[in-house]
Design brief:
two-stranded parallel ribbon; about 15% strand
């Protein structure tokens, strides 16, 4: 498949720093045991209000807006 046509799973959630470290530990354990790790991009907001403001500001802005959002916020897995 053409690299430009592949889609990445994007996860948008609210959470705390401890959740980030729990997910990172699980991924590290999979890597250590030789399990495959699925590719995804996770954007975590501190609270639902921050998430809503960011996502609602994108509504109707057209193509390429998601890419701009992820580059501004940074991708954290």
């Amino acid at each position: 498949m053409n690299e430009s046509l592949k889609m990445t799973k994007v996860i948008i959630r609210t959470g705390e720093v401890i959740g980030f470290f729990e997910r990172a530990r699980k991924v590290a354990q999979k890597a250590d045991s030789g399990e495959s790790i699925s590719k995804s991009e996770t954007i975590t907001f501190e609270g639902s209000q921050e998430k809503d403001v960011a996502l609602l500001s994108l509504a109707g802005k057209g193509r390429g807006t998601w890419k701009k959002l992820t580059s501004k916020l940074g991708n954290s897995n």
